[in-house]
Amino acid sequence: MAKTMRLDKMLSHMGYGSRRDIKKLCKDGLVMVDGKAIKDSSIHIDLNNQRVWVGDEEVIYKEFVYLMLNKPPGVISATEDNHHKTVIDLLTAEHRSFNPFPVGRLDIDTEGLLLLTNDGQTAHKLLAPKKHVDKTYFARISGLIGDEAIEAFKEGVTLEDGYKTLPAELKIQSKGEESEIYVTIVEGKFHQVKRMFEAIGHKVTYLKRIRMGGLVLDEGLKLGEYRELSEDELQQLFQ
To answer: What is the largest CA-CA distance in the chain?
Structure first.
């Protein structure tokens, strides 16, 4: 079944400007459909079977975008904010044109894996409490942590407001005046990792998310860098 869309809407969605901008591109003879210059930007095209070019660049239409971001500290997980830079500000105009949003949130001082997409259905599945999508963090915490903390996390930790978390997996990487750990949780309560450690007498001094479900942070991405997900990563995401 053919999926049709107005040419100007399709090009606008793919980041080629406003409908007025696209109308001018057509008028200047820069838009081709199946090898023919198109002057009328309001025509409908078959997205599955027709080929569209702007200048010497073929336009491959996609409805959804999935981006892996290595979120830096000082940036908030929001689409807009009057006081702080947001994760959307880190994107190119091409990717902003898809109107993506962060799936969940990381605190302003937390680094690491953040997924951005405009696919609301997939985002909802990843965030739904009943799905229990696990998330793994690397953290540095103040003070010497003992093996009893592993059992405490396995049982679930009672937070300062009386809420008892679901069981979490704690692995101790190193012990000392500042200890390094990995923790995997299946919830997304406000400041949850920090609050869990505070409940057992430790302060989190550094926090980085490295995994969300089957999606693992690409360590090749520097802070503030992002890329689209690979086909394999998309399969992991949808599973």
So the answer is: 72
Distances (CA, A) of 38 to 22, 43, 57, 139: 11, 9, 15, 56
CA atoms 217, 221, 227, 228: torsion sign: negative
Q: What is the pLDDT of residues 178-191, one digit of tens each?
A: 999 999 999 988 89
User: Facing residues of 139 across strands?
Assistant: 181, 207
Catalytic residue (choose from 21, 46, 89, 107): 107
Do β-strands 111-117 and 52-54 pair in parallel, antiparallel, or remain unpaired?
A: unpaired
Q: Tell me if residue 107 is catalytic.
A: yes
Token readout for 36 is 């023919």
Residue type (1 letter), 188:
G
CA 38/CA 74 separation, integer angstroms: 46
Average pLDDT over residues 111-138: 92
Which of the residue ranges 2-11, 97-106, 157-166 would you say has the lowest mean pLDDT? 2-11
Using a CB cutoff of 8 Å and minimum separation of 24, what contacts does 144-152 make? Answer: 144/175, 144/176, 144/177, 144/179, 145/172, 145/175, 145/179, 145/181, 145/202, 147/172, 149/200, 149/202, 152/200
pTM for the whole thing? 0.83
User: What is the per-residue pLDDT for 1?
Assistant: 45
Outline where the chain has alpha helix (H): 7-13, 19-27, 93-96, 120-127, 148-155, 192-199, 231-238
Q: Is residue 16 a contact partner of residue 52, using CB atoms and an 8 Å limit? A: no
Nearest-angstrom CA–CA distance, 110 and 103: 15
